[in-house]
Every structure is written in structure tokens, then in C-alpha cells.
Amino acid sequence: MDGSALPPVSGASLPPDAPEDGNERPGSRQRASERAGELFSEFAKEDGTIAVSALGDLLSAVDISSSPDTCMRVVSTVAGPHAESMTRDQALAVVGMISTERTSVGGSLSPPQTQSQPPVQPSQQQQQQQQQQQQQQTPILPSSSSLGTAAATAAVAAGPFRLESAPPSSSHSYLGNPGVGGGEGSGNGPSRPFRRILTKNRSYLETGALHLDEAVVQYMAKLEEHRRKCEVEGRYQEAKVASRRLADLRTAQVDSLRQELASNQSRELEEVHAVYEEEAAKFHQLWDQRMRDYGVNLTKALEDLKSSHTTQLAAYVEELQRKKPTRARPSRDYLVQREMQDKLVKAKLYGRATKVKSMADELYQAELETTVAAWEAESKLKIAKLQSKQQNEYEVLLQRGSKGRDELELKRLAETERRTLRFRNIVSELEQLHKVKRAYLAEWGTFSINCF
């Protein structure tokens, strides 16, 4: 997902092929007034005007729903509080203002589309022509310090206007910092969505544009022309009424833009929080799985070590059993008795030889038992030494496993704190950008109103 797939910045101009809110195209705000212009003749009276009571039907025909209070408020702003009918320009201006208010609230101006009637997308050539026409018809309005009042008024009344914004300050020059996630700042982690959000807001400061409905601007231009004509002809009361109505329209448009900006900024903050929550959920899910895998691996390592110790101990005991002594080492007394036995046999003293033989056999048996007892004691000592060594190895592995688990927990905590800190920095920077846009809009709105 690249940056072009993200929602557009509030008020920023988009290229012809960049969809807005997924399926709308640039200039969708003009579609409501354009459709109303095409259908105006069906609701107009013979004199070319439309009754205020028929305005609701015209709005319904262009798929715009609005409360009666809103309609009457806008009609009062455009045509006056006691107007019973409106001209074509006034009606289109009313439709444009109501559609703009719906956009600022978050509604879509595009007519509902069914599956049987897919939306018709303009061709690439038509999009390029539309972009060129928009660039040619969109004058740039610098700050109030560089324009005179008359020149600025003419620029405002001429058509949709762009606000030339100042370049971002040095405090916003680090927008490419790694965002929340990853912890390594490699740019391949979850930090990219936040960086895209900040980047698109910075692009607004560099090439920001605030658009008004074309029908509203055209009506304001005609109203301004009428005011000047009244001044020239000496009809000052009509000029005063036209001037007041221009100021009311301008105030309404600035309020609409302010509401739209607030709605878009709120949506941007919600988007940041949603991305953060999504990435945080993935982050904790990944770490939970990592901790589970570590516990499983540690348990398996302990079981393998225990099994290895059991096998090693059994083999060692078997080896000791094979070395169990079956004959005693003859002592000096035993050898002397056997020598005496042989001499008595040679002397044919069989009775005494039998007694000596019995004594020698008893001595040998005692010496054999002593040898076996010594072997058993030595074997038990060796087995205990091996078991102690194995127990030490087991405890060392347990300590290493516990230490590794603690290190993972500390690393997870540090990563979480780092992600939270980066998220707070991103939200703080986004709020600062929002303050800049609100202040810029307030300054521009005050200047534009004063122009009238």
C-alpha cells in the first residue's frame, strides 16, 4: 500500500486520477450544482425563476437531503430573508452551499449507485483536460500583506481560489523519522502508515488548496459586479444590500470550510489512532507468540536434558556393574595358609590340612566381601557425583531460561514504551500541523471577509 492509496489531505488538491474517499473524483463538489443546473428548467417557472418551496424538490432530484431549517438559512443568506423565488444563479449557489455543508459533515455528494449501474469514470484524456482547465481558472491568492483590497476582491470573486501556503518550518523537517513500531527504525516496519499520514499533511502546507463550489463563486462574482454597478449608478442602498449579502456569503463559506477542516482533521487523528491500535495489536500478538515459542523451546530443552541425563546415568551404572569384582585379591595371610595346607597334604596329615583349608576359605570369603563392599561404596560415590553434576547442568539451564525470559520481557517493555513515545510524537506533530492549517484558514477567512 503506497501513499497514493491513503485518504486525501483536507482541502489539498488531488491529481486527476487520484480518487477521493475511494470512489469520488476531483471536482465532485461541482457535480451537485452542475446536475441542478441541468434540471433547473424542470422546476423553474415561466419567468425563469424557481420558487423557494420547490427548492426541496430540486435538492431531492440531485440526491441531496437537507433539513428545512438548513434550506431556509442558506436561502436567506443568498437571496434574502423574505425571498419567495430565486434566480438560476441563486438557486445553484444554494445547492452548492448545501452540498458543501454536507461534505464538511462527512456525507458524500455522489448519487447512490447500485450494482446494476456502475459509476462512469472519466477517461484519462478528460481528466487531463479537466486538470488543465482547473489550473488555468484557479488564481492564486497570496497573503493579505502582498495584495491590495481591490485586487484581492477581484481574485476572490473570479472563481475557485487556492491558498498559497508558507513552506513548512524547520520543526516539521523531520517527518521522515521512523514511526511507531519495529523499534529499529529501518523503515520496513509498522512505522510507514504514520509517516505517510504526516507526509500528506506536509504536502498540504506546501501545495494546500481550499475549494469553494463553482456555482457559489460565480454567484458571488455576479453579486460583486452588481454591487459595483450600483455604486457607479448611485444606487447606494442596493450596493449596501449587495455588500452585506456578499459578506454573509463569505462568512458562510468560511464557516463551511472551517467545519470541513475540523471534520477532516478529526478523521486524520482517528486514522492515526486506528493505525496505531492495529499495529499495536499485531505487535503484542507477535510478542505473545514469541514468548509462547520461547516457553515451548525451553520446556523441550529441559525435557531433552533430563532424558539425556537419565540415559547417561543408566549407561554409567551399567558400566560400573560390569566392573564389579568377582575375586578378591589374595592377602599375605591367605597365601601363608594355602602354603601350609600344601605342606600338610604332602606330609599326609590330612586332618590338619582340612582344618587349615577351612580357615583359608573363610579368610578368602571375608576378603572378597570386603572388596565388594569397597566397590559398592566407590560406585555410590561416583553415581552421586554424576547426579550432582547433572543437577547443576539442569539448574544452569533453568537459570538461563529464566534469564532469557526476563530479557525478552524487558525488551518487549522497552519496545512498547518506544512505540508509545513515537506515537505521542506523531500525534503531537499532527496536531501542530492542524493548528497551522486552522490559523492559516482563520487568517485567510478574515482577509477575504474584509475584502468585501
From TrEMBL:
<feature type="region of interest" description="Disordered">
    <location>
        <begin position="103"/>
        <end position="148"/>
    </location>
</feature>
<feature type="region of interest" description="Disordered">
    <location>
        <begin position="1"/>
        <end position="37"/>
    </location>
</feature>
<protein>
    <submittedName>
        <fullName>Uncharacterized protein</fullName>
    </submittedName>
</protein>
<feature type="compositionally biased region" description="Low complexity">
    <location>
        <begin position="108"/>
        <end position="148"/>
    </location>
</feature>
<feature type="region of interest" description="Disordered">
    <location>
        <begin position="163"/>
        <end position="195"/>
    </location>
</feature>
<feature type="compositionally biased region" description="Basic and acidic residues">
    <location>
        <begin position="22"/>
        <end position="37"/>
    </location>
</feature>
<feature type="compositionally biased region" description="Gly residues">
    <location>
        <begin position="178"/>
        <end position="188"/>
    </location>
</feature>
